[in-house]
């Protein structure tokens, strides 16, 4: 019997991640059973069974998982529960995703189609790099960070835990020893052009990005 492999989240992003994972495991783990994992019992989604979080976490089978949920606090909580239950965090990588030299990638990353991480970049646990997004050289990314589609993050940028970078955002290049820093729990709005560091918990929008809301949303 193969593993029980769960994708937490059966909404839009989960439905995008499931076929990537299916293709990834087709040859290496053909006996695996793939399911969606949701808080409550639901009907099958796109022909894939949905099991509850409680049932997945309590299953005696060998288990592995991916978390396709954008909210970083939820992702952190589910990752901790799944690891504590003995399940393995899977990296999901589309066939067209690219990693260059000396990239360090934490457990549970999801790298969508035509995404790219350049050389000498370090990424924490539970990273989401959505379709056609680019993370350049010499960046440092914390845990449970989300990049939406078509993000461009130039080199020498530090993105702290739980930050959310909206689709189409552009983050300018920092300097060695003086990176541009996106603070913990910060949100960069869709299409924003970030030219300087963003405080923890802040929401920034526009070109150039300006603070719309101050905050302390640390993850």
Strand content: 25-35%
**Order of strands in the sheet with most strands:** 6-9-12-15-18-21-23-24
* Overall number of domains: 2
Reported by name, the CATH topology of the largest domain is UDP N-Acetylglucosamine Acyltransferase, domain 1
CATH architecture of the largest domain: 3 Solenoid
Extract low-pLDDT stretches. Answer: none
Spatial shape: globular
Q: In this structure, how is the largest beta sheet organized?
A: 8 strands, mixed
Kindly summarize this structure in a few lines.
The chain has 219 residues and is of the alpha/beta class. It is 15% helix and 29% strand.
Please name the defining characteristics of this protein.
219 residues, UDP N-Acetylglucosamine Acyltransferase, domain 1, 3 helices, 8-stranded mixed beta sheet, 6-stranded parallel beta sheet, 15% helix, alpha/beta, Rossmann fold
Structure commentary:
- The chain has helices at residues 12-25, 53-58, 72-84; strands at 4-8, 33-38, 50-52, 63-67, 88-89, 92-93, 98-99, 104-105, 110-111, 116-117, 122-123, 128-129, 134-135, 140-141, 146-147, 152-153, 157-159, 164-165, 170-171, 180-182, 187-188, 193-194, 203-205, 210-213.
- The protein is α/β, with parallel strands linked by helices and 219 residues long.
- The protein folds into two domains: 4-90, 3-Layer(aba) Sandwich (Rossmann fold); 93-206, Hexapeptide repeat proteins (UDP N-Acetylglucosamine Acyltransferase, domain 1).
- The chain has an eight-stranded mixed beta sheet, with helices on one face. Strands 7-10-13-16-19-22 form a six-stranded parallel beta sheet, with no helix packed on it.
- Strand 23 (203-205) and strand 24 (210-213) form a beta hairpin.
């Amino acid at each position: 019997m193969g593993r029980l492999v769960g994708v937490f989240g059966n909404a839009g992003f989960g439905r995008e991640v499931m076929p990537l994972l299916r293709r990834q495991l087709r040859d290496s783990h053909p006996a695996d059973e793939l399911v969606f994992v949701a808080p409550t019992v639901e009907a099958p989604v796109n022909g894939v069974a949905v099991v509850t979080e409680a049932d997945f976490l309590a299953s005696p089978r060998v288990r592995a998982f991916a978390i396709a949920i954008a909210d970083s606090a939820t992702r952190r909580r589910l990752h901790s529960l799944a690891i504590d239950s003995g399940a393995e965090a899977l990296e999901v990588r589309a066939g067209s995703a690219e990693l260059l030299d000396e990239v360090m990638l934490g457990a549970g990353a999801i790298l969508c189609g035509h995404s790219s991480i350049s050389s000498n970049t370090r990424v924490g646990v539970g990273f989401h790099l959505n379709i056609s997004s680019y993370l350049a050289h010499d960046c440092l990314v914390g845990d449970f960070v989300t990049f939406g589609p078509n993000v461009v993050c130039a080199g020498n940028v530090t993105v702290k835990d739980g930050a959310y970078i909206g689709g189409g955002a552009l983050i300018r290049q920092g300097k060695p020893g003086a990176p541009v820093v996106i603070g913990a729990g910060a949100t960069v709005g869709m299409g924003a052009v970030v030219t300087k560091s963003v405080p923890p918990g802040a929401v920034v929008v526009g070109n150039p990005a300006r603070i719309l809301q101050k905050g302390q949303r640390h993850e």
